Amino acid sequence: MSTFEPSDPVAHVDVDVEHLPGGATLVRVTGDLDHLTAPAFEAVALPAARQCSGRLVIDLSQVGFLASAGIAVVLAAGVAAPGRVHVVAGSGFTRRPLEITGAEEVVHLWTTRDEALGDG
To answer: What phi-psi label fits residue 61: left (phi over 0), alpha (psi between -120 and 50 degrees) or beta?
Structure first.
């Protein structure tokens, strides 16, 4: 039987930035995006958005849970970036909350990373 210990992480997120040939910047997120993990996402995504000279792609394909705090960071990155931000949100866990909140007015949603990195 497993028991919860206060030191056990409730939610976890990994955020990586990769600068791709051609000037694109890829922000890859793995884990859950909620009020506990959104600050770690924000600490990486907003500077990447501000400094990106080409296409900024935020890949949420490995996110299992997307709460309003994570959506707020996606939208903030969309506002901070000099160009339109492209978000990979292929699963219902990520795409549906973004659609419901009207995020497509600020960022462009794609199903796959290849689509988001393409010319669309």
So the answer is: alpha
Closest alpha carbon to 58 in 68, 43, 48, 72 = 48
Q: What is the pLDDT along the chain (120 residues), one digit of tens a residue?
A: 445 455 555 678 999 999 998 889 999 999 999 999 999 999 999 999 999 988 999 999 999 999 999 999 999 999 999 988 999 998 888 999 999 999 999 999 999 999 999 865
Q: Say if CB 66 and CB 33 are below 8 A apart.
A: yes
Q: Are strands 25-33 and 107-110 parallel, antiparallel or unpaired?
A: unpaired
Residue from 63, 73, 72 nearest 94 by CA: 63
List of E strands, 1-120? 13-19, 25-33, 56-66, 85-88, 107-110
**What global pTM score does this model have?**
0.89
What domains, with CATH codes, occur in the chain?
13-117 (3.30.750.24)
DSSP assigned state of 20? P
> How far is residue 32 from each of residues 29, 36, 56, 83, measured CA to CA in Å?
9, 9, 21, 26
